[in-house]
Specification:
single chain, mainly alpha, 4 helices, flat
């Protein structure tokens, strides 16, 4: 009886570990099967950015600009997701949107660094 219980516990733990490992691997490699997990990671990342923004010494205007930047990025990512869900995605449009996202992120980072230099 103990052997059956021990083997059963081993099988359950092995299956649980394998399932968790597969999910993390898919998230790291951007697998299409993990869109939900990837989206939730983006949302968590956005929440973390908002918390970090709250801890920095920023003017209300700068906070507003940063929040607007984050909203623009999320809108463009949503647009990319909509295009990718079509039967024939327009890769030129996706490339343009990705470039816009990275331009916003670069501007966002520059603003944050300038603010850090002002406060230090």
């Amino acid at each position: 009886m103990k052997k059956i219980l021990l083997v059963g516990a081993f099988v359950i733990s092995a299956v649980s570990f394998a399932n968790g490992h597969t999910t993390m691997e898919n998230m790291n490699h951007g697998s299409m099967g993990s869109n939900t997990n990837h989206s939730s990671m983006k949302m968590m990342n956005g929440d973390m950015n908002c918390k970090m923004m709250g801890k920095m010494n920023m003017t209300p205007e700068l906070k507003k600009q940063m929040q607007d930047d984050m909203i623009k990025i999320q809108e463009k990512q949503l647009e990319i997701n909509k295009i990718m869900n079509t039967t024939n995605p327009d890769m030129k449009k996706i490339e343009r949107l990705n470039n816009e996202i990275y331009q916003i992120k670069a501007t966002h980072m520059t603003k944050m660094q300038q603010n850090m230099m002002k406060t230090n």
